[in-house]
Specification:
With 264 residues, the chain is α/β, with parallel strands linked by helices. It is 39% helix and 19% strand. Helix 9 links the parallel strand 11 and strand 12. Helix 5 packs antiparallel against helix 6 and helix 6 packs parallel to helix 11.
Amino acid sequence: MKQLKDQIGFSHSFETTPKRIVSLVPSQTELLYDLGLEENIAGITKFCVHPYHLKSTKKIVGGTKKVNYDKIRLLNPDIIICNKEENTQGIVEELKKICTVWVTDIFTLEDNFQMITDFGQLFDKRTEARKWNDKLAFALSDFKNFIQDFPIRNVAYFIWKNPYMTAGSGTFIDELLKLNHFQNQYASQERYPEIDLEKMDADGSLDLVLLSSEPFPFKAEDGYDIVKSTDNAQAVLVDGEMFSWYGTRLLKAFDYFKYLHNSI
């Protein structure tokens, strides 16, 4: 009997290692694949785009906020992987009627390392999980050396338009902004606040407006409209996956961050 606790503190007991997995979180689908669990993945969301071929080989069971319970039930899963932010509590409670639901909760880099360790224990992929954590730890140390001499810059990270919304505190995005020496203009507000452009740069200290590619796909012309209300801020289009996806995606993110800083 294996007893493990997920990241929202719920204890699970497993008589055997879960074999059939439904993943309702794109970044965690990628992690499962990178841990060597492709054959065990039975169902994914329409947003699970890495690696791309999974969309044609696995059953699509909906999105992250709206899932098809009947499709999931027919897959006869042993476990369903969810995330506290990506999937609603209502979805999780309904899925518990089908099988065990494992919920992650990722806000810090340490949370990310823990998730990978947990998946290694959960799916008997301890060696693979340890290798990935070692690679990520090395890449993190390397990036910290890279970024240490870069100045702190004030930024607003936009995730949505109409209404305009940014990333605030208590988000994985905010954690990665800090790592990049970006002072979040909205760190005093939690989660994803709706903001007033006219008040965004009231003291004229804003350096960068970061426009994410997801969930809203910002374009260059959006940047022109937004920075008109600032004193001197520069608008920069950024890859939203690199700032918001956790799991093994971080390895690519560290290289992307270097490129970003060298190009601003």
